[in-house]
User: Fold this.
Amino acid sequence: MLVQPIEWLSNKVRMLDQTRLPQEEVYLETGDYQEIASAIRELKIRGAPAIGVAGGYAIALGALAIESSSKDDFLEKFRQVSRTIAGTRPTARNLFQAVERMDRVAEAGREVEETKKGLVEEAVKIHSEEAEATGKLSRFGAELIKDGFTILTHCNAGPLATTGYGTALGVIIQAGEQGKKIKVFADETRPLLQGARLTTWELMKAGIPVTLMTDSMAGYFLSRGEIDCVIVGADRIAANGDTANKIGTYSLAVLAKENNVPFYVAAPTTTIDASLETGAEIPIEQRKGEEVTHMMGVRMTSDCEVANPAFDVTPHRYITAIITEGGIIRQPYGEGIRNLFGK
Ligand code: MRU
Assistant:
């Protein structure tokens, strides 16, 4: 049974608070879109596809709460809700994909009650499509994993991050379900430890052997020939294949190339932003310094200047293949991505 990070409970959502894992499994229930917006900002719900799903539900809840029978007044208030959700986190493409879909439903010119009904249906559809896409891409990606492989992954790209099978972890879990004997090295993923807290938890639940290491140990294991491939998820992929993912992904990709280890990106097509020519245009979220200076609320450092970009961009030349629900694409990515959307 895959863990469900978010569920729709007719006019409310139930979310697993990922900041409390793995110590406690605490669920939050709310019908207030502002609370979901805060949960997205605070990473209670996180991971590109899961953020998109949460964003869709938040907009639906915000719309349901608008008390107005005038279309113009409803739309004015709806736009405020939609802008709030779009302003929660800047990097994951899936969030904006979901917001744009919800906006199109709201602006379709129907009466208020009908529009509200349509928005709920659209949010539920966004959820089921994201979940389905990760199932499909996991099956494609599992073909790249051979029996006996040791795989390195970064951050958390499993069911918690996607509401479905997972992207990078989906591929790994699927290969395990096919009976392949595989092992995983999980980077702890500083500063918020998504790898240490969430990836190890999910892989242990799935019965896949996992070894935790700090981010800086990756070069050691890669250079010793102990890793057969690296698989990561993505937050946004530009039209040329450049990929934004959790900070530290770029370093891993360079190390993988230096050591002739394949480097795979797994993501649904909702993560691809074909409107951006290259990764240089991807907005990178800068988060507060306390995430670096503090651990579990305790200051670990002097009161120094802190940098905290949440993502980096891996240039497409370091990426061996991109695994999507439409199939596996390889260089040149521009052509592969165009074909994917042409399908
Ligand atoms: O800041 P987060 O925890 O939302 O970052 C998540 C990641 O970078 C994941 O690797 C990415 O969203 C891919 S998950 C399917």
Observations:
- The mean pLDDT is 97.
- Residues 35 and 206 are 31 Å apart (CA to CA).
